[in-house]
Structure formats: structure tokens, C-alpha cells
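Q: Sequence in, structure out?
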Amino acid sequence: MFYPGSSSDLERDLQQMLRLAPATLASPVKAIIAPHAGYIYSGPIAASVYAPLAALRERIRRVILLGPTHRVAVNGLALPSAHAFATPLGVVPLDLEAIAAIEPLPQVLISDAAHALEHSLEVQLPFLQTVLGEFTLVPLAVGRASAAQVAEVLECLWGGDETLIVVSSDLSHYLPYTLARETDSNTARHIVALDPHIDHQQACGATPVNGLLLAARRHGLQAALIDLRNSGDTAGNRSQVVGYGAFAFHAEPDHAH
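A: Exactly. Output:
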């Protein structure tokens, strides 16, 4: 529903979107926030933050992927019982060791229902498969949880340069174009300031976003806004739009050099 089912069409679309995105970022990226609508709506905005990750192709070996649940209510963060995820571009193995490490946490549960119809995680995978080499995945469908509970899971999985954290979230929903632009740029300012008080009117993935912002603060990361547009800019009408933002998080440059 969100991207082409044929691998050749999907590859062509991805290459096209990534080619149009500027591919430079100041320093190695530890985490990103990317939107999750149909590719004609949010794909170009997602591409803006995925394109620079190609430079880390050989380094990133594991992706921690968090997105909100849209169809099934969940208390906590849900893992699937599957051992791999598949897209038209191939199979991504799950990191079973990492999953075993977080399973004892009280806020982590196994729910295949939470993942069965959930697009927020799935739409990120073809981008990751295109810009990265071999990697394993820890997919978390985030339901009712606190920012601190999300941050605790991220803390367990933080790792080093081999681990990338991806939070899937759109911004405002169904506002008129001008109001959406105002609302989203305000939200973007809070995200860049690492203010972990984003609400669900501002971002459907507010819970994982706030968890990432808490963890980013703890680890001294800096956030950068890469792209901020809405469906009225890409493929929709402007009477009711959905906002999309792309953000990258990186360690502050080492002042010793």
C-alpha cells in the first residue's frame, strides 16, 4: 500500500528519491527521525536523511527501528516473534541476541498482532536496504509507554558506531497547509533543542521521539533538521495536509582535534 510491490519499480523509485537528496552530513550519524507515509507523499523527505547514511554503509551493522502502532493498541514496546522481516528488496534478519537482552524489561512484550498490519516500521526498511550493506534489525512497535521507558530500551541497545537508531514518525495531521507549516516548524525547533515533551498532535510517533530525545541528551548528541515539508508540497492537496520532518542526531565534534 505504501510503496511498489515489484522490486524493480521499488528500486527505481528509491534511487530516484535518493539521487535528488543532498548526500552530505557534518559527522557520523547515530540516530535519525524519518516519516512513514506512502512514498509519493513522504519518500523525498525520508530520502533526505537516508542518502547521507550511504557513507556509513560499511560501518552500520544493526538498526534499532521504533515506530508508533496505528492499528493495534499495545501497552509498552512490542517485538515480533519472527526471526526476519521481508520486503520486495529481500530479507532482513532480526538481531536475536539484542532482542533477548531487552526481553526481560517489563515494558517489552512480544506481539505479532502489533506488527501484522503496522506500516510505520515496514516503510523504513527499503530505504535501509538500499543505503546500508548487511545489517540486522530490532523492530519495536511502540504503544502506550513513557519516554523514560523508551529511553531505557534504547540505553540497553545503544552500542557503538555499528548501531543506528531509526525513529519513524510523521508530524501534524490534517491541518490546513499554512497552519501545518507553522505547527511543524515549532515542533522541529523542540526536537532540535532535544526537548522531550512532544505530544501526539505534533507527531504521531511522539512516544519514541521523546524517548530518543531523552537518550540523545544523556549521550550528548546534537540534532539537526534535514528536511521539513508536508503532503501539500509533494503529492496532496493543501486543505488538509500531513507534516513530515527528517532529523539527524550525531555526537558533538570532539574539540580536542
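The CA atoms of residues 165 and 174 lie 28 Å apart.
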